[in-house]
Design goal:
Elements: H1 14-40, H2 52-82, H3 88-113, H4 126-152
Helix pairs in contact: 1-2, 1-3, 3-4
Length: 160
């Protein structure tokens, strides 16, 4: 059998699978935040401490960043899949990590530390802050649990 070779074992790129998922998760959560809270509900802009023109510009910059994250993440994901290096479970874990990390960063750093905007104005903020940050923490913990569970399984235990 000259010229015939058996396919090599699939080598999963765990780190890249997670990071591609993180990038997609950040992009998705940024898009949800911008579309729902900035545009549909009009509760705030990315930067509310200036003029309406600056607020609109800040939303445009956030939108550009989320599109870049989504396109880059999906190209990375597709490349991993093409090379048979993708771990779907690790990518899902990364997506949840990215989405939860974005939401917690926004809720804690943007809202409370930097005060670039609040979730909503003219209302008691505590319920909004609690729901926003707890939801982010749940996403983050679910992603961490999925990554940990997938990485702790032995290679022969099934599809990763």
């Amino acid at each position: 059998m000259v010229g015939f070779s058996l396919p090599s074992a699939r080598t999963v790129d765990a780190r890249s699978s997670i990071l591609a998922g993180v990038l997609i998760g950040v992009g998705i959560m940024a898009a949800v935040d911008e579309i729902v809270f900035h545009q549909l509900l009009a509760w705030h802009h990315f930067y509310d401490r200036s003029t309406p023109s600056v607020a609109l510009l800040s939303d445009g910059l956030l939108h550009a960043a989320e599109v870049i994250a989504l396109v880059g993440g999906f190209f990375w994901f597709a490349d991993l899949r093409r090379r048979l290096g993708l771990s779907p479970r690790l990518a899902w874990g990364g997506l949840l990590l990215g989405a939860g990390g974005f939401q917690l960063f926004d809720g804690l750093v943007d809202h409370k530390v930097l005060r670039v905007h609040q979730i909503r104005y003219g209302v008691h903020l505590v319920p909004y802050d609690v729901v926003w940050n707890v939801a982010g923490a749940v996403l983050l913990l679910a992603g961490a649990a999925l990554v940990w569970w997938t990485r702790s399984r032995r290679p022969g235990d099934g599809s990763r």
